[in-house]
User: Fold these one by one.
Assistant:
Number 1:
Amino acid sequence: MGIFSGCVPAPTPQISLGGIVGGVRANSTVHAVVDKEYGAKPINYTNSIRAYFSTKIARGNLSTYKYGKPKRAYKRKGLAYGGDIAWKGWLVETSIATPTRTGRLLTPKPYMVLFSGEQIVEHILGYSHKLLIKVDK
Amino acid sequence: MANFNTHFMVASGASAVLSGTLLSMEVVSPEQAVYAFALGTLGGLLPDVDSAHSTSIKVGFNVLSLLMTIMLIFVKSSTYSLIEMFIVAGLVFAGIRYALLDIFRKISKHRGMFHSIPVAFIWGILVAILMQYFFGLNSLVSWVYGFMVTTGYFVHLILDETYSVDLRNKRIKKSFGTALKFGKIKTTKDKIQTAIIYVSIPLLMSIAPDTSLIENALFSHDAWLTFKDVLIPYDGKWFLH
């Protein structure tokens, strides 16, 4: 990109999913949803979540994943750290069934995965937390 | 009645076994298991904080005052100057360690309601609430810490009851039944105290973190199967993994 590229009008944000996503060939162009307060809605969240948990939980790469739709949410810091808003963005509820070390598949565990754009910020075990407010139900 | 050292040793032993089991069942991480162990041990000392001159009350108030002072430093470090922080931290520490301890010694009575089953549950719920609201921990870990405190507390109460049976002289001491009790209804004051304690349990539960995760992790059929999986070598190879 040249030094004069700033003079060119910026194109509308478009993210193309050219490859195979979830077994379905994506031919269409997906328009990114950008919320003023909550930032860009994650699009490629399923792959991001799977890659993220493969190193975060035991036998994450052998687990079965189910994903919800991204929701707007925000989270406060604990009162011991001031209680201010710590994160505002998009949350994806994910359920992960992990095998034990003997290979038995456990009951799926619920997780909330917090995104800032396409980036995973943190995950929280459970579908509820007293310091987290889901804006979209 | 068991002394401080006995309570400390038994509570830490029970907490070590329990936190090790939770770690093995992959309910907690190694770091969380260490905190669980510490909280279980602390829970085993808590019932004696109502005894005016016990070691437990000194340890309890030392830990509480230090914890509150450190929390204050966390919260105010970005806004207060060092001198302001030093003054306020000193006031908070002295206020809890000396003034509050003095008031507590005056109003508490040893072997009162602090030595009771519902109070053991209240401590667990309070710890779970504190962990989620103050430190932002998830519901499972918050409840595991609460569960450890309650278990440590129960270990203390059971130990006190065990010590009230004199096996050598084959007699039961006067203190029998004063530790592991559901409440006191002798006087009007006892009745009010007991009622307050029982009313506070559902009130605290209404603001407590979600319990479904700990129910599934510790008290479900799945949890039982996981426990059986880790109890003995699943492949039959003892020590050869």
Number 2:
Amino acid sequence: MAIKLPIYMDNHATTPVDQRVVDAMLPYFHEKFGNAASRNHSFGWAAEEAVENARAQIARLINATPKEIIFTSGATESNNLAIKGAAEMYREKGNHIITQVIEHKAVLDTCKRLEKYGYEVTYLPVGKDGRIDLDDLQRAITPKTILISIMYANNEIGVIQPIQEIGKIAKEKGILFHTDGVQALGKIPVDVQRDNIDMISLTAHKLYGPKGVGALYVRRRNPRVQLSAQIDGGGHERGMRSGTLNVPGIVGFGKAAELCQNEMAEESIRLRGLRDRLKDTIFSKLDEVYINGSMTHRLPHNINISFAFVEGESLLMGINDVAVSSGSACTSATLEPSYVLKALGVGEDLAHTSIRFGLGRFNTQEEVDYVTNRVIEVVQRLRELSPLYEMAKEGIDLSKMNWKAAAEH
Amino acid sequence: MAYSDKVVDHYEHPRNVGSLPKDDPNVGTGLVGAPECGDVMRLQMKINPDTQIIEEAKFKTFGCGSAIASSSLATEWVKGKTVAEALAISNTDIVRELSLPPVKIHCSVLAEDAIKAAIEDWKKKKEVSAPAANATAGN
């Protein structure tokens, strides 16, 4: 089978919309275009019915009830609503929030803003494996703690946090537990009852649905979570999120969730196999390669590898017919290497050499083999060009070199 | 990020990759940058002590495409030049030739530093080797 280039292997950033999802959405643009809030004619009723159907499909995927699903514009909004909404609502109970250092910026920046308003935030560290220590969490809890926000799985390294244990601790202490679930949803089983999750942020475009639509699960029983709305208006979505619903997007989100529900078990085995094939071949052909984060507690479609002595951006340039991403500073807007890798204790020298592979539903074995071979070929070529590789091979300890003196030479 | 055609050309066909014997008294080695910063360049030149002409130049670079291109270009430019002419090469010449965007200017600065460091190393070796024959040169 001929391979179509370029190959997309950056499915943590976004995913293509599944054709079956597109087909489900299409009628809701032109024929069934009604406003789901129009209560007095058939156009509105058709839209409302479609929305309620999608709500049920999404609820089923996380073992929730449909009424607990609040639609938003995406996970960034869901994270903002969950954290700011809870902080505002429970201000009298306390002002302390616990999160961790490798959260997505949508959580970190939201917490930073709350700090300006007088809230106190504890940012738990992570170990070399990328997971928080539950003892650290226990110790961080104070009588003022109102919310714990820890992501389900990380977007760069795919590491899955001990969610069930965190949920249990939060429940015992009577603290709300929010999790950013965007990378986990539809990839591994998520169960808000089993995991004691009070709020989970979700988005459609990471599970083969459209961009611009997300949801927040807000628990209604045991405990009943209340949130201060962050967007005021017509009181849609149980008053928690006003604004006309994005009906086609929501229909697509629902369909995407249903497909994941039906296919996740099989798909995750297939992707894990392909991911391991990629990893094993790279490790058999190249020396000085390192996996970032836990291999045990990891999403099946993710791998994040540092290729020592080869700068990430130059590697991406060499594999320009493959879409992956790098933790190198040169590829970030801030010119700083990945804060996630830094938090794991990965040295900056190795952070610059990291590549994230995010496999997805539409990747084939042929594509994986092509990408693997291209990466190996380019790494070998760039190492021929790398003074660091030559020095390391000569037995020079690069960490003991006085680079500043070398630079000032 | 889009790269200029010249950067791509140097990246795909780097000129003068390799090493020169660093203990040769006529070879100057410049090693600049740091792994934590994501750029390390090593530029070596073999300089004729009588004519002061740079007869050979080699490089190896750890860094982005622009860093590789800047050092590759530097070896091309210094070859055949005198030491004085090579010292006159400025980073802005490299920026212009490769059409580097503002975020990549530091790559050109590093290449200029590498040229100067290599020549400095060569000069130091000459001073050491002039009075004493058995002196060893470090980098």
